[in-house]
């Protein structure tokens, strides 16, 4: 039997000593340094009314060939405003990039469509997608009226196509992106699983489960930069067996479907009494997740402010918020697919384990590395189940084993809702990234079965995935997890 407090004792591992040495070395490099966390002069909030959320009206999402992506952007000397464009995703299969453009960039690209690489507009009004998502949360039974995007007739958008689909058929009385039915938790009957929830509701669900179920403990693994607890749920379905499976979600704040999926996995592992023990963290990047609900739906990193050297990033603001928590682990730190600029959405942090969220998780995993036999990190989007390595295209010594597991996963996922996810080592399948949690777990902790899944979709809605997809995403991920457990543990 594992007791809760065993997970909480700070680790004295060599990893911490290495961290201290790395900290000492890197802190002298003068690339960037930590600023006072309470400062209010926040560059990220330039476009924010402090009482309201960032408005993405007239921001567009476009799809463009990777080779033409530079044509979208202004020449260097006029591109100071980094809120005007953001690369959301690269599709390495069809060699396209998905890019968010601010209102000015949108107007410029539309005006000069041929000279800017002929991008395809998926939406001209990202805010309409966010509004639809929010509307579902405010009242599940209300009809949600989506704002018609302001696009010129010569540039049809994805939203326009949806509108046109309905012309001449029937007038819909429900939003096409709204779930057709509500799926209630079998443990907490008032809780609807296919709906997005703010942090307080997520944590309430964990506490309610703990109150009503035996063998469940909710505990805090550590605190965020802004002082919020990072909560985990321990599910002891097989207390006499010391083996655990670790699952984390929402390392990247805007990946909301990872949270709803994690809640469904919690529900299913309890209801179906899967004979394994689990530690599940449904929201790892707690500050970032709260920020996506209260300020900026498209936020990715944590919220810790850092100063940037003017010399290193001369055309960027002096100060930016946030470290990419999946670039902050001690594995090929600072290598390809990460950034040393605090203003980059891939900022790796000043040194490995610099962020309190990553420190909390890595301490717990390191201390319990002999008990944790499998890990799964939930991300979105891309529809891919992946294994190490992320930092190199080189194969690991366990490649054949990983692929056997992933093939079983792929089959189970596809047979659930008919959607086939890609499988493979992350670096060779999708993109290279350094400082990844999955790679660190595999290489530094020696846990063979470390995986990462990129959930739905393939880029149309991306991070702003409509609520109607919460349920299929959750159910197929559960099927994949169940198949992996069967394959690895034979249970
Ligand atoms: Zn992610």
From TrEMBL:
Gene3D superfamilies linked: Zn peptidases (3.40.630.10)
Gene Ontology terms: biological process: proteolysis
GO molecular function: metallocarboxypeptidase activity; zinc ion binding
InterPro entries per UniProt: Peptidase_M14
Active site: 454 (proton donor/acceptor)
Keyword Protease applies: yes
GO cellular component terms, semicolon-separated: extracellular space
Domain called Peptidase M14: residue spans: 195-488
Family the UniProt entry places it in: Belongs to the peptidase M14 family.
Name listed for the protein in its UniProt record: Peptidase M14 domain-containing protein
């Amino acid at each position: 039997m594992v007791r809760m407090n065993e997970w909480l004792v700070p680790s004295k591992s060599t990893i911490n000593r290495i961290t201290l040495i790395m900290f000492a070395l890197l802190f002298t490099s003068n690339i960037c340094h930590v600023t006072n966390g309470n400062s209010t002069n926040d560059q990220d909030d330039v476009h924010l009314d402090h009482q309201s959320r960032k408005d993405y009206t007239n921001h567009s999402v476009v799809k463009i060939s990777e080779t033409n992506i530079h044509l979208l952007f202004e020449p260097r000397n006029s591109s100071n405003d980094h809120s005007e464009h953001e690369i959301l995703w690269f599709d390495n299969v069809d060699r396209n990039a998905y890019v968010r453009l601010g209102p000015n960039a949108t107007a410029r690209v539309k005006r000069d469509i041929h000279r800017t690489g002929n991008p395809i507009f998926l939406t001209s009004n990202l805010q309409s997608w966010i509004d639809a998502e929010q509307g579902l949360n405010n009242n599940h039974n209300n009809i949600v009226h989506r704002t018609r995007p302001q696009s010129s007739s010569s540039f049809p958008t994805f939203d326009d196509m949806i509108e046109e689909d309905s012309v001449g058929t029937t007038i819909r009385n429900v939003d096409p992106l709204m779930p057709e039915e509500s799926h209630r938790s079998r443990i907490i009957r008032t809780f609807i699983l296919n709906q997005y929830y703010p942090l307080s509701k997520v944590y309430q669900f964990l506490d309610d489960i703990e109150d009503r179920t035996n063998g469940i403990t909710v505990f805090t693994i550590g605190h965020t930069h802004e002082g919020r607890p990072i909560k985990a749920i321990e599910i002891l379905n097989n207390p006499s067996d010391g083996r655990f499976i670790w699952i984390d979600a929402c390392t990247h704040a805007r990946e909301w479907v990872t949270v709803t999926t994690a809640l469904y996995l919690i529900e299913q592992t309890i209801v179906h009494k899967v004979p394994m023990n689990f530690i599940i963290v449904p929201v790892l990047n707690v500050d970032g997740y709260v920020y996506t609900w209260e300020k900026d739906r498209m936020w990715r990193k944590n919220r810790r402010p850092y100063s940037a050297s003017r010399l290193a990033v001369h055309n960027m603001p002096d100060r930016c918020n946030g470290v990419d928590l999946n670039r902050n682990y001690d594995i090929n730190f600072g290598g390809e697919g990460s950034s040393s600029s605090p203003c980059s959405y891939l900022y790796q942090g000043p040194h490995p384990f610099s962020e309190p969220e990553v420190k909390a998780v890595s301490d717990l995993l390191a201390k319990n590395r002999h008990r944790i036999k499998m890990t799964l990190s939930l991300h979105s989007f891309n529809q891919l189940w992946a294994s190490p390595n992320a930092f190199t295209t080189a194969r690991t010594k366990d490649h054949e084993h990983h692929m056997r597991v992933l093939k079983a996963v792929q089959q189970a996922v596809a047979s659930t809702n008919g959607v086939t996810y890609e499988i493979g080592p992350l670096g060779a399948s999708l993109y290279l990234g350094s400082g990844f949690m999955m790679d660190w777990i595999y290489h530094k902790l020696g846990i063979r079965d470390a995986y990462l899944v990129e959930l739905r979709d393939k880029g149309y809605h991306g991070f702003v995935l409509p609520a109607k997809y919460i349920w299929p995403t959750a159910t197929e991920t559960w099927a994949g997890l169940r198949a992996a457990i069967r394959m690895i543990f034979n249970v």
